[in-house]
Amino acid sequence: MLSRILVALVLLGLLVPPAWADDVPSPEPDDRGPDALHEGEGGFDSRETLVGDLEHATHENAEEAPRGFGDSWLLLPLVAYTPETSVFAALFGSMWWKPDDTSQIDEVCSWGAAVLYTWKQQFVAGQELDLHFDQGVWQFSHAVGYSDYVDEWYGIGGQNDGRAETFDYTEVLIEHSVRRRIVPQVYVSLLQYLTWTRLDDVEDGGEFDTGVAPGSDIEVVSGPGIGFDWDTRDRQNNPRRGHLASAQLSLFAPAFGTSHSHGRIDLDLRGFIPAWRDHVVATQFFTRLQPGEPGFSSQAEMGGKDLQRGIFEGRWRDRNLWVLQTEYRAPIVWRIGAVAFGGVGNVFDGSDTLFDGGLKWSVGGGLRFALAPDEGVNLRFDYGRGAQGEGGFYISIREAF
Question: What's the CATH number for 2-397?
Answer without folding.
Answer: 2.40.160.50
